[in-house]
Specification:
Blueprint (H helix, E strand, L loop, with lengths): L4 E5 L2 E2 L7 E2 L13 E5 L9 E6 L4 E7 L2 E6 L4 E6 L4 E5 L4 E5 L6 E6 L8 E2 L2 H9 L2
Antiparallel strand pairs: 1-9, 2-3, 4-11, 5-10, 5-12, 6-9, 6-11, 7-8, 7-10
Bound molecules: dTDP-4-keto-6-deoxyglucose.
Length: about 140
């Protein structure tokens, strides 16, 4: 994976009953204290791209808990496309990482855990500004 990223694998527990239990636990598979959780749903027939920004201090782990989408990461030097289609595999979105989510399947649901509350001042939403920021940090 590109810089400031990484994989997270959640343990899954299944037994004779229907259903699979997937577990996120701070310190075990989530590498920061979680202050916020959000999810994105209703992506049916969706042709738009989401994301297209980087964070200065916020750390997050992004999951696709249903369906699939493509996550494009850009650390300022390298770019990588990741097909997100396993509900227990998350990707760490560290700082200074331009990320775009696209090609959502119908029924796709994204779940994100974040190290801090929402602050618009933590976002870099302009790509040229992002490149400049990465070069200077
Ligand atoms: C990210 C990716 C993976 C809030 O007011 N509170 C919140 O907690 C969030 C996440 C968003 N907002 C507001 C900010 C915007 O006015 O909701 C609006 C839409 O947010 P945004 O365009 O940033 O949404 P996405 O899907 O492009 O990005 C989101 C997160 O914002 C972002 O941090 O890393 O998911």
């Amino acid at each position: 994976l590109v810089k400031n990223s990484g994989w997270v694998e959640l343990p899954q527990i299944s037994d004779e009953r229907d259903g699979v239990l997937n577990i996120m636990e701070v310190g075990k598979n989530i590498p920061f204290d979680i202050k916020r959780v959000y999810y994105i749903n209703h992506l049916e027939n969706c042709v738009s791209e989401r994301g297209k920004h980087a964070h200065k201090a916020l750390e997050q782990v992004i999951f696709c808990i249903n369906g699939s989408f493509v996550l494009t990461l850009d650390d300022g030097e390298k770019q990588q496309d990741i097909l997100m289609n396993r509900s227990n595999q998350g990707v760490i979105l560290g700082v200074n990482l331009w990320h775009t989510m696209h090609d959502f399947s119908s029924g796709c649901v994204l779940l994100v855990v974040a190290s801090d509350v929402y602050r618009e001042s933590d976002y870099i939403r302009d790509y040229d500004e992002f490149k400049q920021y990465v070069e200077n940090s």
